């Protein structure tokens, strides 16, 4: 039995919270997007929340937790969708949100503490020298940069820059190990893959160095089409227009825009599908020429409305914000994460649209993937049963569209459905007691797990919360 009262004493001088309601609040993320994860994780809670403000406090906390054998689950803004930041073995939530200083802004890069909110980071780099992050999740207003690196993949700007997995999109990470004497490691180059998108299972990120791009006052645009596939065709043409600078291209099928985008409703037409776009101001002229060629109906331009008061950013209609807006109106909606590999991504989208009709509502995100334009999708699904959801997943995969399953809390099942040997080897080196975010890396907990057997993994530690 871990003695949390004693741990609290050992951490004197560091902010520690043990009020059950507050601890439970910080033990949640957006897992409830998934009806499957909601039923599995609803009762999960930690024992303490520790909120360090310096790297020294992080090291002290890890040292104390290691000595007591207490699990540690790091947390940024808690906006992850798959229970990534939820403590499946209880223990300590390491709240990194108070380590939020931007340390240095240089031409083309920024060095910051892990807990800075992404939009705040962009605000500071823009004010300093007209620069911004190359891309950000649609949760930029609430997510931390460290949480994005440890839990996210790409987002607004990925149409130009690809994702976090691409070499050069993270420059350096400072990481603390979970050992009797925690070590400080500076990771660069290929070594970054050890900890990026590892859900904090093999090190605590305290500092990041990220590349920057020129900042613009991006214009939000919504273009309407009566047919979803016409919207997709226009989006594909826009994504392939080399001379147009855009930051976001998201086709979203009817009835979602009119029914779910309540603040934009006065500008939208019932029954229309849309493409949500962010374009650089100097690209707007040629952009209009392209829209005209593709017979699009420009319904909204942020540079033409009288006031943007009360109207969310275009990127808050896209990525997983589309699902969030749908869920607010229709709680029976859930979603999938689909890839439509190039070069026949548009044909693959067409096949899925024809297969599912209204049961799956199309939502695509165009992005650069391994140097090529293709689309990923976060289609909304009218949820009926877990069995039907599995069937929808299987049909997508049979159509050549791999699924990254957002209804699983493990790294492997939500990703490539195989062991990441690099991340596993690094965990053996940095977390010998397996105390960091237990239950998220199957390869650590159950090395014999057969990914091909088609069974879902159930972490044994969860039994304590059943
Ligand atoms: P958290 O949710 O707090 O943590 C995420 C993971 O990182 C957890 O496993 C946590 O343990 C770990 N972690 C946090 N901080 C550290 C640290 N310092 N060191 C080590 N591990 C750490 N994701 C995208 O990639 N693109 C999107 O566009 C996008 N849009 C979204 C829209 C909505 C409405 C929602 C709810 C989610 C979306 N997501 C998206 C998922 C999520 O927002 C991103 O992954 C986000 O960047 C997570 O940041 P966070 O600070 O909230 O991290």
Explain what the structure shows.
The structure is a single chain. The protein is an alpha+beta fold and 466 residues long. Among the domains are: 98-215, 2-Layer Sandwich (Uridine Diphospho-n-acetylenolpyruvylglucosamine Reductase, domain 3), CATH 3.30.465; 219-398, FAD-linked oxidases, C-terminal domain (Vanillyl-alcohol Oxidase, Chain A, domain 3), CATH 3.40.462. The protein has 16 helices and 20 strands. The protein has helices at residues 4-10, 20-25, 35-41, 55-68, 118-129, 145-151, 158-161, 228-239, 256-260, 284-293, 319-329, 345-356, 386-398, 411-414, 421-430, 442-445; strands at 15-17, 48-51, 72-75, 92-95, 102-106, 109-113, 131-133, 172-176, 184-187, 204-214, 219-225, 246-252, 273-279, 297-301, 333-335, 338-340, 360-361, 364-369, 372-377, 380-382. The strands form five sheets. Strands 5, 6, 7, 8, 9 and 10 form a six-stranded antiparallel beta sheet that branches. The longest helix has 14 residues, at 55-68. The protein is globular, with a radius of gyration of 22 Å. The two termini are 19 Å apart. Residues 29-30, 73-81, 84-85, 96, 114, 137-139, 143-144, 146-148, 150-155, 199-200, 204-205, 319-321, 324, 437 line the site of flavin-adenine dinucleotide.
